[in-house]
Every structure is written in C-alpha cells, then in structure tokens.
Design brief:
The protein has about 100 residues and is mainly α. The chain contains 6 helices and no strands. The protein has one domain. The longest helix is centred in the middle third of the chain and has 17 residues. The radius of gyration is 12 Å and the shape is globular.
Length: about 100
Amino acid sequence: MEELAQDPNPLAAIVQAHRIAQIANKDAAIGYANKLSLIKSLYERGFSRENIVELFRLIDWFIALPELEEERLWQEVQTLEENKNMPYSLLNSLIG
C-alpha cells in the first residue's frame, strides 16, 4: 500500500481506494482513517483541482462512511485546505 500512496499516477489512488474499501469492509473507524489519509495524499501528490475532484468522487463511492463520520471527514478536509491555503475547496467543487 505504501507504494500506491507514493505513486503519482492517478490510477494508483483508485487502486488504493479499492484496497482500503476491501480492508475496511464494515469498520467505519478503519474506513474513516484510511479515507482521510488517501484524500490528504491526493493533495500531496500534486494533482490538479480537476483530478482531485474526480478522484474523490471515486474514492467516496468506494469508501462509503456513516453520516457522522462523513461529516467529520469533511471538517478535516476543510481544516486541511485552510491550513494549506488551498486556492479552491474540494467541498465547493463537488457541490458546484
């Protein structure tokens, strides 16, 4: 999994999301931690805004979380974007 996390190829992120979904299965805590880590890695890999939005849609589909964890995840992503002074918001990109 470490190799996938470091790979700049967008397909590596998709494979990583699929593997996380298989590992997490029905465990929301594992799914949450790994989904957050994967989202953070999208920013670190230097993907464009469009790539991040599209990859996130797939990740969100693969790794579905209960509503409470999903809300917590969005708060974490928002904090991450604020701390990194991101020129765009993933949440706004998905809504708009």
